[in-house]
Amino acid sequence: MKRIFPAGLTCVTAIVALSLLSCASTGKKVSASVGAGAPKWIELPGAVYAYTDYIAQVGNASDKDSAELAAVQKIAALFGQDITSAGSASKRMEQAQKDGEVATVVSSSDLNQKIQQTIRQDNLIGIKIAETWLDSGRNTWYALAVLNRAEAAQIYTTMIDKNNATIKKLCATLKPVTIYTYANISFAKDIAEQNKRYINHLFVIMPETGRQKAAESITPEELSLQAHKLATEIPVYVQIENDRNKRIATSFEKTLSELGFNSTAGRNAPYTLTGSLYLAETTSAKKDVYYSEYLVQCNVRDISSQQNVCTWSLSGRDGSKSPENAENRALTSAARKIEDQFEVALLQSIKNLPQ
């Protein structure tokens, strides 16, 4: 009986995927016979598992687990390395996956843990260890990993379709324009990023199916443009206390403007970014260096609901031989950190807004 390790299953396609994987059988047995002649698949996997139906790769090592890992790594490498966006997964995404609204790959308890811990889950869909063989003369294990193209393509297609339905639903709820509808489009973009990886995998497994799903799917880039356009209709008033030269406020306004928000709005804007700047002067023990310590705190707030959208702060210090220059360097450092870090914090907070 062939040993099969099911690959990752999706939360919404678990039943389908399990039936697919359990029904698939190549009729090949795992061989560990000592002194037997090398099986044909070691040199020519396609002679046993046709290229039109399978992706097959052979790995070898001194132990069986490492040989299996090497074989699976070769298939996973065909999908390449994906670049993931910065920031942690939002609470909204985690809940949507739990509720089955968003399809994602989950761990398979039957999969070899050494493989599972080394290779990202969505690179494991449909991969199985179909054959193993021990060359006792050389004390070398060989493993054949296979991916059934039709089975894996069906799992990816089901996930993509599920996610596209959720994206469509989110994009239909963008009026009236508020920070919450902006959160919807941002969430849709996160789902599209996930789908983009699945579509890229489909291009490797079944190129024609990959092209079809790509044509049916909205891209993260398109949703980014929609989010930016939506943000232009959301005014945000910025005010920072003790910010004499408006250097801190200007950095916040610049960050908001780059996201599309109207940061030139007056005091009656529906959203506000208010905060404060604190500066404190200290000196070195020899009193030959002056330090300016800074603390910036801010809060983005929805005026109508009195709900906090984002609360954020940063601190640090800079030094110089004159107190004036120390303060100037501190303000420059604070402004740079705002422009580098605030956007990520704001977007993460928006994604976690209650719906």
Question: Secondary-structure map with pairings?
Answer:
Layout: E1 9-10, H1 14-23, E2 54-61, H2 64-77, H3 91-99, E3 105-106, H4 113-118, E4 127-135, E5 140-148, H5 149-171, H6 179-205, H7 207-216, H8 220-231, E6 236-241, H9 247-259, E7 271-283, E8 290-302, E9 307-320, H10 323-351
Parallel strand pairs: 6-7
Antiparallel strand pairs: 1-3, 2-5, 4-5, 7-8, 8-9
Helix pairs in contact: 5-6, 6-7, 6-8, 9-10
Report on this structure.
It contains ten helices and nine strands. With 355 residues, the chain is α+β, with helices and mostly antiparallel strands. The strands form three sheets. It has a four-stranded mixed sheet with strand order 6-7-8-9. A three-stranded antiparallel sheet has the order 2-5-4. Strands 1-3 form a two-stranded antiparallel sheet. It is elongated, with a radius of gyration of 28 Å. The chain starts with 8 loop residues before the first strand and ends with a helix.
Briefly say what this structure is.
The chain is an alpha+beta fold and 355 residues long. The protein has helices spanning 14-23, 64-77, 91-99, 113-118, 149-171, 179-205, 207-216, 220-231, 247-259, 323-351, and strands at 9-10, 54-61, 105-106, 127-135, 140-148, 236-241, 271-283, 290-302, 307-320.
